[in-house]
């Protein structure tokens, strides 16, 4: 059992999901921060702003360094970006029922594939 906010030292998760190697987490978080700072300079339309927030959520939840995590920090980042742009905050899982969708469907929604 791990304490709150302890990095995952194993890669096998529940339901066949795997976690990123914990040694890669700091570099991936840094990459995400740099990417977000660059993208924030170029977004213009409200759709681009929403897309940035959705991609921020997807990228952070993919890093996912905590065993007990359910994406709360990623949701917080997504909603923070939406508040920064004075957008209505979204809760995609609640309103679209995405909790039962596959990862591929989520990637399509976010425009990644």
Descriptive notes:
- The chain is mostly helical and 113 residues long.
- It has one domain (26-109).
- It is built from five helices and no strands.
- The protein has helices at 25-40, 46-63, 72-84, 92-96, 103-109.
- Helix 1 runs antiparallel to helix 2.
- It is globular and about 35 Å long.
- Low confidence ranges: 95-101
Radius of gyration over alpha carbons? 15 Å
Q: Compute the number of structural domains.
A: 1
Total helices: the number is 5
How many strands in all? 0
Structural class: mainly alpha
N-C termini distance: 35 Å
Q: Main beta sheet, described?
A: none
- DSSP strand (E) fraction? under 5%
Succession of helices and strands: HHHHH
Determine the mean pLDDT.
76
Q: Could you say which overall geometry the principal axes of the C-alpha atoms support?
A: globular
Helical residue percent band = 40-55%
């Amino acid at each position: 059992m791990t304490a709150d906010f302890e990095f995952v030292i194993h890669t096998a998760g529940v339901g066949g999901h795997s976690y990123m190697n914990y040694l890669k987490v700091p570099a991936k978080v840094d990459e995400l921060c740099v990417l977000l700072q660059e993208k924030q300079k170029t977004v213009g339309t409200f759709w681009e702003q929403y897309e940035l927030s959705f991609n921020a959520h997807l990228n952070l939840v993919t890093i996912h360094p905590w065993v007990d995590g359910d994406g709360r920090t990623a949701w917080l980042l997504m909603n923070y970006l939406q508040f920064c742009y004075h957008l209505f905050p979204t809760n995609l899982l609640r309103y679209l029922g995405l909790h039962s969708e596959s990862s591929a469907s989520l990637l399509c929604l976010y425009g990644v594939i």
